[in-house]
Amino acid sequence: MPADLREQRLARLRLLRSFTSFAAPAPRPEVAALAAIEAELDGCTRCRLSEKRQTIVFGVGRPDADLMFIGEGPGAEEDRRGEPFVGRAGKLLDRLLDDVLGIRRDAVYIANIVKCRPPGNRNPQADEVATCLPFLERQIAAVQPKALCLLGGVALTALFPDVRGIGAERGNVRTFAGTPVVPTYHPAYLLRLSGAGGERQRARVADDLRLAWKFVEETGAAAPTRR
Ligand code: URA
User: Fold this and answer.
1) The pLDDT value given to residue 219
2) N or C: more exposed end of the chain, with fewer CB within 10 A?
3) Is residue 173 part of a domain?
4) Is residue 2 part of a domain?
5) What is the pTM of this model?
6) What secondary structure does DSSP assign to 160-212, as a single string?
7) Is there an atom of ligand 1 within 6 Å of 185 CB?
8) Which domain does 174 fall in, by range?
């Protein structure tokens, strides 16, 4: 090969090598899957909740979390900040995670049944839930948690339409797409209680969190998400 051609070829190879050495590694599959779902929701107008929302509240936490929490829908603070459970109920959830399981919120994944704030914090309506649920199902499939914890009756009946209310069903383990599910009371409900009644319900939520965590530990993957 003529020297000048060989020099050109070597220059091309050097250039290629410099590109490949700087190329970002491919994202992990769960990260890529979550990013793809979030991108599909960008500017979503699939239901009327889009009319009054400020921000689509997609979900937050470890993309490969062993434990995933599902609430009802964003409140005012979540709508403003674009992150689930950052208001008063979220602060209580953080405290429960710390006190009961010794973990921080960034050790779990947190999402909601609907991703846009229902006006005035009303419950999401059936058609709004039906529109948003497929995205949540795909988030669950991407994260592949070892256990799901449902916060409150809206989350419970969105995934299990035929069950009785949260009062009767909390602490009863079910499965959703092969994943164990522990329903428990919503932290906002706990915030409305006081006195001995409040303590009793808070103790039940603590029991439910421990139960959900048992599924994480049983499958032997707890260590990396512990603080
Ligand atoms: N309540 C919910 O159900 N979800 C949030 O994100 C905040 C409050």
Assistant:
1) 79
2) N
3) yes
4) no
5) 0.88
6) -TTS--HHHHTT--EEETTEEEEEE--HHHHHH--HHHHHHHHHHHHHHHHHH
7) no
8) 27-225
